[in-house]
Amino acid sequence: MIEVRGLTKQYGNVRAVDDLTFTVQPGIITGFLGPNGAGKSTTMRMILGLDTPTAGSALIDGAPYSSLKNPLGKVGALLDAKALHPNRSAANHLKWIAQANGIPTSRVREVLDLVGLSKVASKKAGGFSLGMGQRLGLACALLGDPEILILDEPVNGLDPEGIRWVREFLRALAAQGRTILVSSHLLSEMAQTADHLVVIGQGRLVADSSTYDFIKQNSSSHVIVRASDIDVLANSLADQGLVSSRELDEEGRERLIVEGVSTDQVGQVAFSYGVSLFELSERRASLEEAFMEMTGHTVQYQASLKQEGA
Ligand code: ADP
């Protein structure tokens, strides 16, 4: 389990991570989601003891990373898949890390098999495609057969086939009971991969819930209805336990907004109470829009547009 408590990182006048508190549980994939610059990498680096927090703590099974006796056996990480020695073969790269960490070199062949790189084990990593580089990065992370995996944007730049492979691979690792924290700036990708989401924006926690609840809460839809007698319709809906509010359309006509219902239900109520409908439609708030709004992405984007224009 990973426990992050009040974690904060200040770089000069930039607060990269701001009082973050969350827990990462074993047996599931936890998606660490936020737009670029939200503070995901900084958080992961602090969990791995590569950066010192300004305040707060990050514990791995109750202890800081720096106090782990066998760190690679406990936590595997993929931070920057491009950080490879270009002239070293995949196998030699892994052997070098294994030897430096007291891991038997027989494990190298196992991890190359696991990530599907056995056939190119003797090829130089410098000639690898992005997808092969990511696989090699995952092989490194798995060398010590760790219980916990921390992966920063493992699907960044991969083609759909590569993305699917990583997703299936992480699912299998989670099913073995491992703890998996995987970051991404892509909501669509995380929604398909993660069981649980920790969402941050501008260093702050904005959501910590199951992916199912996150989607349900943030992709609300409502029905818009205009009718012959709006008071009768509002009362009829209320009789059925349905809450509605009023708004004026662009032509100044009053209409009802009904949350959490289908157009079928509203049409049926209107029919039973003898109300004629003039307009009946559904308005769906996009999950992507909700995500951008909650993470402050739109604000940052607008600010950078202004700078470019200045
Ligand atoms: P993410 O991984 O979500 O894209 P980062 O953790 O890389 O976000 O960055 C969060 C913020 O901290 C950004 O504003 C970034 O510019 C800043 N930042 C990250 N690392 C440093 C550093 N070493 N020095 C100064 N600022 C940094």
From TrEMBL:
Asked whether the keyword Transport is assigned, the reply is yes
Under the heading CDD domains, the entry gives: ABC_BcrA_bacitracin_resist
Q: Which SUPFAM superfamilies match?
A: P-loop containing nucleoside triphosphate hydrolases
Organism superkingdom: Bacteria
Q: Which residues form the ABC transporter domain?
A: 2-227
Q: Which SMART domains match?
A: AAA
Keywords from the named record: ATP-binding, Nucleotide-binding, Transport
Gene Ontology molecular function: ATP binding
Q: InterPro entries, alphabetically?
A: AAA+_ATPase, ABC_transporter-like_ATP-bd, P-loop_NTPase
The text of the family note is: Belongs to the ABC transporter superfamily.
Q: Which PANTHER family match?
A: ABC TRANSPORTER, ATP-BINDING PROTEIN
The protein, known as = ABC-2 type transport system ATP-binding protein
Q: Which organism is this entry from?
A: Corynebacterium felinum
Its ancestry begins with:
Bacteria, Bacillati, Actinomycetota, Actinomycetes, Mycobacteriales
